[in-house]
Amino acid sequence: MSKARDFLVAAATLLLGRGRKRRLRPGERERIVVVPTPKEPDAELLAIGLLFAASLCGLAFVVIYVLDRLPAHTQLLGLALGLAFVFLAAALVVTAKRLVPNEELEEDYPEHEHPDEQERIAQVVDESGLTRRRLFVLALGAAGGSIGLALLTPVASLGPAIHLARFYLTPWRRGTRLVDDEGKPYRADDIEEGTFYTAFAEGADKEAMASSLVVVRLPERELDLPPENAGYDAKGIVAFSKICTHAGCAVALYRKPMFAPTDPKPALICPCHYSTFEPQTGGKVIFGPAGRKLPMLPLSIDGKGFLRARGNFDSPVGPSWWGVRTRKPTT
Amino acid sequence: MIRAIVRFLDQRTGTAPFLRRTLRYLFPDHWSFLLGEVSLYAFVVLVGTGIYLTLFYEDSTAKVVYHGSYAPLQGREMTHAYRSVLDLSTNVKAGLLIRQTHHWAANVFIAAVVLHLLRIFFTGAYRKPRELTYWIGLTMLVVSLLEGYLGYSLADDLLSGMGLAIGNAVALSIPFIGGNLAALIWDGPFPGGPAFFPRMYIVHVFLIPALLATLLAVHLALVALKHHTQFRQSPRETERKLVGVPTFPGQAPRSLGLFAAVVAVLFLLGGLVQINPIWLWGPYHTYSATNGAQPDWYLGWLIGALRIMPGFDVVIGDYTVVPNPFWGGALLPLVFFGFLYLWPWLERRLTGDYAYHNLLDRPRDAPMRTAIGYAIAIEIFLVFLAGSADRADVLFGLPYVPQIWAYRVLVIAGPFLAGAIAYRVCVELQRGERVEHERKAAEHAAGAARSRA
Question: What is the pTM of this model?
């Protein structure tokens, strides 16, 4: 038994001594790099306590995750994880402020430049002789340029960039019926004054920019359509593209005067940048950043009372682009 | 143990001298130097939470009818993209926490970058030899704005769709190339072809993060190569001599503490403060829009600029040359960032100061720079405020149209006034310091004379 104990003691001594011996290499004087500060047992205890609290919160996160029937699950999860990091941060601040030595050292900034090395580099390039062969450098540049161009060319396949005629296409044709969100055709009688309706081209993709309309009914005597839009209304019902000509958002607000005559006239407003269009004058801009009128669609009422398009928009739908012709009707 | 690890590393990489220098690399101490670190740590959180989100997100805009657990949207038609974000928020355990933390981290990240930029600008830290660091930092800001925009666009809720429509209009409005550029990016007219969302997705989760990480690495390497700038807080700090706390053991726990604090704040925000509740906005359709829509804060200046622009397109005959969104959505950021990129060069030309600078200016030390920077900051802030005019209308009953007219005047007059005031304040502060200095010297002389008498 005692032999075994002696062996253990000897092993422990060796084990502990081993590290210490190695620190002193022959001929090397032990030298302090980091100047130690006085021990602070309170601070150490505080840091340990905070780290313990951090572990508790971390475990709490796991427990909350498992107990998913808890109310306010997301809030509790965030609180647990957040507090774990709060305690960790506090522990690290205590460590930084009171446990580790607070050194403030000085050091030289690095040299601004190395003129000899700069010169050496220039010399190496010069002496290679390559830069003096003008034609060679030119050919190298040409090769690099054309290969670069070749490698960039496939980018053109990303979209139909060349054929912008598509921007003028709409699903509206003479006789296309106006339908609601669920595809039910609108009758002229469905359209009442004082509110607006969203309509689509029958059978068309509702998401296509040129498909959606905003439809309002105005008293016919209030209509003041310009000559080019004469007859676009159907008994006071007027229809415009629902897409704002400024930035392409949906014109989703209708301002209707409720306390005439002090309030402004009815207006269609885009909630993105508050471009304001006047329905009774054919969609003219009366406020906001839009640069051109809201495209207007001519309407008619068929024998059964359904609303139909009587042609296409008077101008391009959606936000303007370079070269868009502001008075070109859509196709 | 430590020795064994260090020996192992050194024998195989030969980096012991480098590691030792790194451990004893000096960090000058000032609270404002932590702003860059805050953005770094927010970026780490963004990458971590972002990876998690990619495991749930679907980038398809194919339509699907919703029959999930969120009752108010039952039976509504929506895209796979929107439904995947909805499911992540309502069904995935801790999914909402991670999504909200990601969104908060993006907002905090860009806020920290902007504050960091203000610090760099007003202290002249960008001056020779640190222009490259500055330009790379600016580039990271520009790229981050795009990254954030793409991030909240991917959710395909009503607000993100409206944001994309505006982005599309701004792209269209660029003279000469606009129409073609937008058609290329969107794979056709808005709302774009089926390839558009996968494109946004790969750019958001791979291309830009990889670019940001690369720029970040170069940014930090450049900082370390030329060492930090410092304020002259005592006579010890000079252009040649740096005073600071070593990486280890001094700086490491501080910096890690800051890291933990940033993560703590982000998770607390993500858990406790709702952000972008997409289930309330509903799915996007080109024909829907909602009132009071606002982008994330860092794009507020662009929406403000779009809103206060008077309504005109530049038209020759009936050919549109410059559509309206160009001014606020493309030209303003171009001029603003163009100015910031050129500023170090402009300042050198203006002041003739081609010297190396390791010591920072206080804002008052360079009144002209402070005045110009302040004027520009105020301009951007006014445009940003103009973007909230609709909220002011709803919250305080201030009528919208007169507000917009007021902002149109303010954005022209405000910067000049602000710049003049800033210049005056700087000059007066300098004068005050001189007077104080002379008073001290006189008192000292008087005291010395008295003691002699």
Answer: 0.92
